[in-house]
Amino acid sequence: MRRVLALAWLTCLGLWRTRVIWLLLVLLLGMPLILAWVLQGDGTPVGELRLWWQYSLGWSSGLLSMAALTMGAAAISLEVADRNLILLRIKPVATLQVLLGKWLGLVSVLGCALLLGMIFLWVGLHYHAGRVVGSESRRLLQREFFTVNHSLQPAPLPAPGGTPEDVSQGVTVAPGATGSWKVTLPTSLRADEPTLLYFEFLASVADPAAEFEGLWLFAQDGGREELRFASTARSGRSSRHELPAGWASPGAELVMTYQHNSLDHGVSLLFPRAGGVELSVPAGGFAGNLLRAGVMIMARLLFLAALGIAAGAAFSFPVALFAAAAAPVMELLNRLRADASLWTVWLFGDNRDDWTARLLDYLVMSASGLVSLLLPKLARFDPRGSVTAGQMIAWPVAGEAVVVCGLYAAALLGLGAWVLARRQLGAVDS
Amino acid sequence: MTEPLSNADRPSPVAELRAVSRAFRDFWGRPTVRAVVDVTLEIRPGEIFGLLGPNGSGKSTTLKLLLGLLRPDQGAIRVFGLSPTARAARARLGYLPEDNYVYQHFTPEEVLGFYGRLFNLRSDELQRRIGQLLDMIGLQHARNRTLGGFSKGMARRIGLAQALINDPELVVLDEPTSGLDPVGCRQVKDLIRMLSARGKTIVLSSHLLADVEDVCHRVGIMHHGRMAVQGPVHELLEDRTQGRLTFPAPDAGVLERAAQAVQQAVGAPPLIDRPCCTLEQFFLKQLEQDASQASAPTGVSLATGLAEYLQPLAGRLEQAAHDPDARPQADDPKHLRRMVDAEEP
């Protein structure tokens, strides 16, 4: 361990002495200032703050990710090019220890930079928020930005005498009938903030502007009715209702029922299983969510730094940087694999029997499967969208990010050590 | 490479290469250069072995094979009876590479501390060794300057210090005097001799024949990747067909009578000349004469003697007995003169 720490210390000190850290900090802390000056919001204090926050957090996360890849790729490949690694090679230190030490030093520096960046953004956020005037604007800011919501997908309940298969695609509500959902509220629910209900249904009507009237009924713990309100909504449009603060108890089981009252249209409403009914429950503060977001960004940096180091163990610096940067890009492209057939349609028209189209489909899907297997799903561990939209990031998700990215990092470092141990460094200058 | 190669009748060699060949290949795996061809070599405990040869003869490649930085295409290599890549073998090795591979942004103290920690040296022991090594290489005054500002010779000394931080049993020096001024060359050669006297085994490569002749017990001459010849220096250099008489400043008459006597004895006239000192000896003598004008050192103030931790206990006691208070300074010409005199027959 002493050897690993010695290497980590050398890496940290090297980054400090070469002023890489200075450059990183200037970019990390300078850009949010510029963004605050440049960005124009939608005119509302919440919109302006959200836009600044979204861009600043995106910049910080993106910059640190690029830094992790670049500095990771440089950490070993430049040591090979400068031949410093030759001296390390003949010391009694294992190749894995060398990579581990470099990685540890690098992620320590990145972690400190991330912490500093987060603190800076936090201070900037509160400075912005403090300048908002008007009690209504402040209330909106508190509810829509500084309150973190837990997004709940209530489970559809089959009609009396029905089976679970009846609601596998969603809940269908005939005119005059009712549809029900059940959900358990989180114990972390904050009673001092209102809950938001989002719902959306589909109806086969010719007029898209046709409005449907209904009644929402809410009951918790044993069927005691606690709340009801009427709603008017259109097909295919998301509707939002604010439910009063303090209406439900943390940890309670809630049954939600929709009564279809638009008998004149004569059509049934389908609430899709995904996105048909959603509750946005105030469940925490902004600081806790930001902390979990920081943990997730750090988890990504653990992986990206290891990716850069592993690439640097195999290739020279420019090639290593390209290879390391290509992996996240491939992962990004891989998310579009569902559209692979669209590419072939674009290339080959509707002639799906063309063997070249089938071959391309096959190749794209195979490559996509391979990428899925080899790379972690980084998008899943990207907290920017959630933290900007005020969506709760649960600790299990943050923990999963650390475990998955940590395991991938360990595998990459092991692979890098295996490759580097087989490289004949003495031949570099021959 | 599983069976020991050493002969049981002799002391085990510290390192040995048996019929080793190595070619460098291009991207497609085709051999482009046969750098080392069928080289067999044995390094014995306590000796100073010199690898000689012109540029590109395979000296550095041979050393890299010995260190495990390259794998042989054919043949077997053992260091301390182990594979050269074994960590146990590497813990007993010191290596000064051909070029100065130094961390530009670090100070000598930081670099030596880093390498020392790789050998798991205790902090107090490490600090002691760093101090002694910096004294030994004459860079104590520059211990807090970054290596990026060092001259080539100063960086070379740091390379030498890092090679000795672990008190190695086998020291491999690739062109150890490269980039050093004559004073530095002499001091490195003295250091090599002192290390050998303390039981260290040293392998060095150089194309500077005088350096190798000065310090090595045995040499091997490489050419086109092959070991052309190897053996003890005196055996290789001795010309048994001639003899030489040397006596102090004779006048012309004495010299003539001596020449006649030699001619009568061997039947041929002798060659008469006056012995010259080497340019190195002359240079050091000039430094001694200019000693009164010496000023504070700006680069290297190379000190003397071996770092204390590199000496066995007997050596330390001996040094304490002769020089209990102060170690002579490197830029002290009297000390340099003593070193030169001690070397001259």
Write a concise keyword list for the protein shown above:
heterodimer, A: 430 residues, alpha+beta, Jelly Rolls, 2 domains, 5-stranded antiparallel sheet, 4-stranded antiparallel sheet, 12 helices, 11 strands, 54% helix, 17% strand, globular, B: 345 residues, alpha/beta, 6-stranded mixed sheet, 3-stranded antiparallel sheet, disordered N terminus, disordered C terminus
Describe this structure in words.
The complex is a heterodimer of chains A (430) and B (345). Chain A folds into two domains: 2-132 and 291-429, no CATH class; 154-274, Jelly Rolls, CATH 2.60.120. Helices cover 54% and strands 17% of the residues of chain A. Chain A has helices at 2-17, 20-38, 45-81, 84-89, 95-130, 135-144, 286-314, 317-334, 340-348, 355-374, 384-389, 395-422, and strands at residues 147-152, 155-157, 170-173, 178-184, 195-199, 211-220, 224-234, 239-243, 253-260, 269-272, 277-285. The longest helix of chain A is centred in the N-terminal third of the chain and has 37 residues, at 45-81. Chain B is built from twelve helices and nine strands. By secondary structure, chain B is α/β, with parallel strands linked by helices. The A-B interface holds A 2-3, 5-6, 9-10, 13-14, 17-18, 82-84, 86-94, 424-427, 429-430 and B 24, 33, 35, 61, 64-65, 67-71, 87-88, 90-91, 93, 95, 97, 99, 101-103, 105-106, 110, 114-115, 117-120, 146, 162.
Strand content range of chain A: 15-25%
Number of helices of chain B: 12
Structural class of chain A: alpha+beta
Strand runs of chain B, count: 9
Q: What is the averaged pLDDT score of chain B? A: 77
Main β-sheet description of chain B: 6 strands, mixed
Order of helices and strands of chain A: HHHHHHEEEEEEEEEEEHHHHHH
Total count of helical runs of at least 4 residues of chain A: 12
* Shape, principal axes of CA atoms of chain B: globular
Largest interface: A-B, 28 and 33 residues
Order of strands in the sheet with most strands of chain A: 2-4-9-6-7
Q: Measured on Cα atoms, how large is the radius of gyration of chain B?
A: 23 Å
Calculate the terminal CA-CA distance of chain A, rounded to whole Å. Answer: 34 Å
